[in-house]
């Protein structure tokens, strides 16, 4: 899940993220007329470029926090979402089919795809070997 943050991000990354989200909010608000959206996007870029060479990190941090607060206060009640993204209309529309379902196929069904299932068995064997090398073998007596 790429949308979950798993590590600390730098000031520059936060500024880029703020800019991208600000432009997405403009797209949500003015996207119905492309030229109006582009006009506001250029104005937004000018606001960011005005402070791009700021060397005082205290002032830069304050600008960033003020920008994030402004973005929060001016967020669109119906933000633009890509269809396949979380919150989009087509997110998780097609359910994930678990791999183990192929294990319960009848042998006659598997016989229709002999090369695929031969390679799949090799991959399963390699996966089990890697697992046992990393975590050790499972004791059948203690495993239920």
From TrEMBL:
Predominant location: mitochondrion
Keyword Phosphoprotein: yes
Cell location: Mitochondrion inner membrane
Membrane topology per record: Peripheral membrane protein
Keyword entries, A-Z: Acetylation, Electron transport, Membrane, Mitochondrion, Mitochondrion inner membrane, Phosphoprotein, Respiratory chain, Transport
Pfam family, one: Complex1_LYR
Domain Complex 1 LYR protein: 13-72
GO cellular component, one term: mitochondrial inner membrane
Coiled coil: none
Domain of life: Eukaryota
Similarity annotation: Belongs to the complex I LYR family.
Quaternary structure annotation from Swiss-Prot or TrEMBL: Mammalian complex I is composed of 45 different subunits.
Functional note: Accessory subunit of the mitochondrial membrane respiratory chain NADH dehydrogenase (Complex I), that is believed to be not involved in catalysis. Complex I functions in the transfer of electrons from NADH to the respiratory chain. The immediate electron acceptor for the enzyme is believed to be ubiquinone.
Xref: PANTHER family: NADH DEHYDROGENASE [UBIQUINONE] 1 BETA SUBCOMPLEX SUBUNIT 9, NADH-UBIQUINONE OXIDOREDUCTASE B22 SUBUNIT
Protein name as catalogued: NADH dehydrogenase [ubiquinone] 1 beta subcomplex subunit 9
